[in-house]
Amino acid sequence: xxxxxxxxxxxxxxxxxxxxxxxxxxxxxxxxxxxxxxxxxxxxxxxxxxxxxxxxxxxxxxxxxxxxxxxxxxxxxxxxxxxxxxxxxxxxxxxxxxxxxxxxxxxxxxxxxxxxxxxxxxxxxxxxxxxxxxxxxxxxxxxxxxxxxxxxxxxxxxxxxxxxxxx
Amino acid sequence: xxxxxxxxxxxxxxxxxxxxxxxxxxxxxxxxxxxxxxxxxxxxxxxxxxxxxxxxxxxxxxxxxxxxxxxxxxxxxxxxxxxxxxxxxxxxxxxxxxxxxxxxxxxxxxxxxxxxxxxxxxxxxxxxxxxxxxxxxxxxxxxxxxxxxxxxxxxxxxxxxxxxxxxxxxxxxxxxxxxxxxxxxxxxxxxxxxxxxxxxxxxxxxxxxxxxxxxxxxxxxxxxxxxxxxxxxxxxxxxxxxxxxxxxxxxxxxxxxxxxxxxxxxxxxxxxxxxxxxxxxxxxxxxxxxxxxxxxxxxxxxxxxxxxxxxxxxxxxxxxxxxx
Lengths: 167, 324
Description:
The complex is a heterodimer of chains A (167) and B (324).
Chain A: H1 4-16, E1 21-26, E2 29-34, H2 37-40, E3 66-67, E4 80-81, E5 90-93, E6 98-101, E7 117-118, E8 123-129, E9 132-137, E10 142-147, E11 154-155, E12 160-166
Antiparallel strand pairs in A: 1-2, 3-4, 5-12, 6-8, 6-11, 7-10, 8-9, 10-12
Chain B: H1 2-14, H2 22-29, H3 33-45, E1 49-53, E2 57-62, H4 69-73, E3 85-91, H5 94-103, E4 111-117, E5 135-142, H6 153-169, E6 175-177, E7 181-184, E8 187-198, E9 203-213, H7 232-236, H8 242-263, H9 266-275, E10 282-286, E11 291-299, E12 305-308, E13 314-317, E14 321-323
């Protein structure tokens, strides 16, 4: 997730640029900014005391699709953030392109399920490509808070597979 | 101890038409004549027949056909593969043992080999019939210094090693069904299963499992498999020495692996496509989601299967089963 400092930096850069609109998405977090040109150049209201260059207020909200709407008399930029779940601090990602298998054989139970505790060496799934079966370990002790892919799905290199709340 | 025994075998091998005196062996191996004699008794347990003639010395009269670390290492001229060999008469699966050894730190190139597997496994734990003494059932532990996403190429590499061994040493031309099944005259002869433990950017180990039907007669193959499976013997009308076959595979593997690590996949791709089965033909492809008809174009620079869809687009497949 972006830090407040980074968002400020972005606003500053966009402020100084000729870009009217900007959006950025990563790991379930979305930031979008929009300039309203005609009012933008009019005035600078020192409403926010947080920084000297900041002509606007920025609000970063943890809730999904939270929009910070400001008074129309000032130049407005919107920062929007959506976070599906912030209750995790580790993502297990795929080390290669291949097929995601949630269980060791088609008939057996999944290696792990949502809500299950895992150890760093627990096998959480298999990713297979060209008959090479890669057993993926959790790499942290914690709890699986989200399973992001389904059995049989094709996964990309670096794609998040599970979200884990580590202990 | 084992290296002395290997040196002893090497000395006798070099002079196999002649006798080597006990004194000469004792001098070259730098051990006492009693120790030489003790090593010979051990070799006889492995199936060597050594003739001793007074005032002439010793001579190997028969090489063992049974498998053991000694008999495989004897005559195996490799730098790192097979320096450590674990042999069992009967195991559930060599993959299980090799995985366990790898977790415990087994070194790069360690081999696990069995005369018989009671629970040999293939893709998604499908059973692999591995009859006693009739085939090569082995696993190789590797610790390659490469990115995990390239590791699937090792399975195609292994397929080319087996194909070249069968072609050049056994004298029958096989085909490779993507990614790594070996067919002779349209019937499955060998399979490869690879398992890996890896982090995002580092491989801990790879265990390559190889199963080859070598000396099965038709009646050794379960009736329900006879129409789709065969052995090298059935296709060449000849019995093959397992020990020598294993040595050919291991030394071929080492050469090919080193070439690949130094120069990349291009050479493997070329060899693979030389043996590639049904390239240019329409086949049925099955993934977990769907089954459809498509044309095999070849393989990509990274080993993925290239197929041509009906709309003319060429797609890459990383995991799928080709049926025929």
